[in-house]
Design goal:
The protein is mostly helical. It contains four helices and no strands. It is about 65% helix and about 0% strand.
Length: about 140
């Protein structure tokens, strides 16, 4: 079983480069252009995600958004960036598919109030009364 997994891991880059050469011949675009564009896209995505990850974690620590939401988005973008860094068209397509997944749809990224995500004391939780010292 170990050798099957090892064969798959080692064969993927070879098959990916072979597919890249075939696509480059079919489209007429040089192979170095395919590899350079995906490399630049992967580096750009990873550099931007490094800054965004810090902002997501800070927002999660302040209670502005759930922790899992920021981690899921950042993890998805980092994995897509790594796939774009790998040389080949197949890994690039997998990375673009991963980026286009509609995760966290319906939840806006607009700034929310500082209390969102925290439990506030409502009128029912408040004790109202008079204080009198007994001696």
């Amino acid at each position: 079983m170990r050798f099957v997994f090892l064969a798959i891991v080692l064969a993927f880059p070879v098959l990916d480069l072979y597919a890249t050469v075939r696509v480059a011949r079919w489209t007429g675009v040089p192979v170095w252009a395919w590899l350079g564009m995906s490399l630049a896209g992967g580096i750009y995505l990873l550099a931007n995600e490094r800054v965004a990850f810090r902002a997501n974690i800070a927002a999660a620590m302040h209670g502005e958004q759930p922790v899992l939401r920021g981690l899921l988005d950042s993890g998805r973008k980092v994995l897509a960036g790594l796939l774009l860094l790998l040389p080949g068209v197949i890994s690039d397509v997998l990375g673009l598919i991963l980026l286009s997944l509609p995760l966290n749809v319906g939840r806006s990224y607009e700034p929310q109030g500082a209390g969102v995500g925290r439990r506030h004391a409502s009128r029912r939780d408040t004790l109202d009364g008079e204080f009198r010292r007994l001696e």
